[in-house]
Amino acid sequence: MRGPAEGRRGPRARDWPACAQKIVCHIEDSLCSAATPQVTQALNVLTTVFGHCRGLWTQGLWVRLSPLVARLLEKDPVPASHSLVDLLLSVARSGPRGAAGGVGRSSSVLSSDRGLWETLAQTLSHLSPTQAGPLALGILKLQDCPQALRTQAFGILLQPLACVLEAAAQAPGTPGLLEGAAGDSMTVDTLLSSKSACVGLLCCALAHLGLLQPLPQRPSPWPQVPLLGAVVTILRLCSGSAAPTSDVGGRLCAILVGCGRVQRAALDFLGALSQGTGPQELVTQVFSILLEYLMSPESSSMVLKKAFQATLRWLLSSSKTPGCCDLDPHTQQFLRELLPVLQKRLCSPCWEVRDSGLEFLTQMTRQWGGRTGFRQALLASEVPELTRQLLRDPESYVRASAVTATGQLSGWGLRATPASPERPGAQQESLLGELLHILSTDSEGFPRRAAMQVCTEWLRDGRADVAEDPERFVAGVLQAASRDLDWEVRAQGLELALVFLEQLLGQRGSRCPYSVGLPETAPPGVLAQALQVLCRVQLFEFAFRALFDCDRPVAQKSCDLLLFLRAKAASCGSLQEAGDSPSVASVEATLQRWQAGEQGQPLGYLEPGAIVAVLRSVDLEGLRDTLAESSDHVEKSPQSLLQDVLAAVGVLGENEADCY
C-alpha cells in the first residue's frame, strides 16, 4: 500500500492491489483461528502497520478488522491479551487517519462510529485486573480521549490500592479515590487467589501509578492523600506492623508479610509521591514507616536501598518550605532519629548495605551541607568518622562510595574532629595523603576513579589545602594517573589537567575544548609562566602519551586539551618558538616512537618555546578527525559487509554466484 500511489489509496478495499487484499484476508483468517499463536501473529502485524503507516487506507483497514478484534473479547480467557493491548494502543496513538492527522483528528474520525473507544472500554472490562493495567496506563497517557474512558482506566489502576485500604479498615469507603475504584470483586478475588497473583497485581498497580504521577496528563484532581495512605498501609502489611480487623485484611497480611518485591515497588512509589503534598499527620506516618524499614533487621539490602532513596526524596521535598532557610522542627527531629540508624547501617556486615548508606550520605551532604541543622546533627554523630574508616573497606564498591562521601563531607567542612587540637589541619593533610595513596595503590578501578574525581573537584573548587601548593598536588595526581591501567582514571586525569590549565591562565570555567577556534587571549607573560608550570608538573609528558592511548576516549580528551592550549598560544603571537632546535626534534622523534607503540624515553623538561613549536608541528586536527571515526568504520563498509555475506554462505557451498 506504500509507494507513489499511497496518497490516492482510499479506505475502500476494492481500491487496493490484489496482493494487499490477499494479505488482509489472511489476517482475517488468523484472527478467527482457534490457535492463540496465530492470533498473536496477526495482532502483532496490525500493531506494526498502525504504528508506521499514516495513509487514508488504514481507516478502511481498521473498519474492516475491528469487528474481528472486538470478537476476541467474547472468548474466555481473552487470547493474546498482551498483543491485543499493544494493538489497541497503537491504533489509539497513531490512529487510522490521514497523513496530516494528529491525535485530535484521530479521535474525531473514530468517535464518529464510536469504534475504538467502545472497544477500549470493553477490553478494560473483559481483561483481568493484571492484564488491564498496561492498557489503562496507555489510555491515561493519550492526549485526547473521552473523559468517561479516562475515569474507567484510572479506576482500574486504583482498584488494588482501594481494596487494600478497605481490607485494612484504614479508610472506609476510600474517600478521595474515584468512584468505582473500590469494592471490585474481581480485584479482591485476584488479590486473595494466591501469593503470586496478589504480588503481581500490587506491583503492577504501584509501578503504573508511579509512571503516571509525574505526567502532565495525569488525572486531576490527583488523589494524593488516599494514595499515600494506601502505600503506607501496604508497607505496614509487608512488615507485619499492621493490625487489620477484617478477614480479608488478615489474609492480605499473611500473603504480604516479608514480601520484598512488594516492599520495593511500594517504596519506589512512595518516593514518587514526595513530589506532592499531604497533611502533616500523614507525612509523619510516611517518615515513621521509612524509619521502621531502615531500622528493621528483616529488611533486605535492596529494600534498604529503596528505603534510603525514598527517605532522601521525602527529606529534600520537606525542606522546600518557602521562606525557610533551615530545617523545620519535624525534619530536624527525624534527622536526629535517622543518623544513629545510618551509623548502624555503615557497620553492616553486608557490603551492599554499607554502600547504600554511603550513597545516601553523599546525596544528603551535597544538598544540605550548608544547612546549620544538618551540620550540627551530623557532627554530633559518628558518621563522619565511620565514613573515613570505610576508605579501607575490603569491598571496592564501598571504598569508592566512601571516597566520594568523604570528598563531599570534607568539601563542606564536615570531617571528623582532629585528634590533635593544636594541629587542626593534620587530619585534612592525612585525608589528602590517603586519597593519593588510594589513587596510587588500590587494586580496583572504582576507588581510583572516585579518588580522581574528588581530586578534580577539590582543585576546581579551590580547596584551601590544595591551593597551598597546587603544583605539588597536581604533579602527584598526574604521576599516579599516568601509570594507571584504567582508562577512566587517565581520562579524569586529563580533566584535572584542563582545570589546572584554566586556573593558570586565569580563565576558570571559560574553556570549551570543542570551540578552540575562538580562544580568549592570554597575555604572553601569563602563557609563558603557565607553560613553565605545566612542564614542571609533567603535564605534557602525560598529555602527549595520552594522545596515542589505546583507549580512544583518553586520546580524544588529550587531543582536545592540546588543541585548546595551542589555540591559546596562537592568540599570543609574541611568544618565541624554539624553531628547529635539537629539543624540538628530539620531542618529535619521541612522539613518533610513542605513536608506533614504544614506551621508552621520557620527554624531560622543555622550554615554553619548544612546547609551542611541537604543538604546531603535530597534526592535531587530523588526529582528532581520525579519532572521531567509529572504531568499526572499516568493518561497516559495504565491501566488508559483502565479505561477511560470502563468508556466511561459503560453508554451504551454494548460492555463491548470487551473493557475488
UniProtKB/TrEMBL annotation:
GO cellular component terms given for this protein: cytoplasm; nucleus
Cell compartment(s), UniProt: Cytoplasm
Keyword tags: Cytoplasm
Coiled-coil boundaries: none
InterPro entries: ARM-like, ARM-type_fold, BRAT1
Source organism superkingdom: Eukaryota
Alphabetized Gene3D superfamilies for the sequence: Leucine-rich Repeat Variant
GO-annotated biological processes: cell population proliferation; DNA damage response
Family in the record: Belongs to the BRAT1 family.
Protein name: BRCA1-associated ATM activator 1 isoform X4
Recorded name of the encoding gene: BRAT1
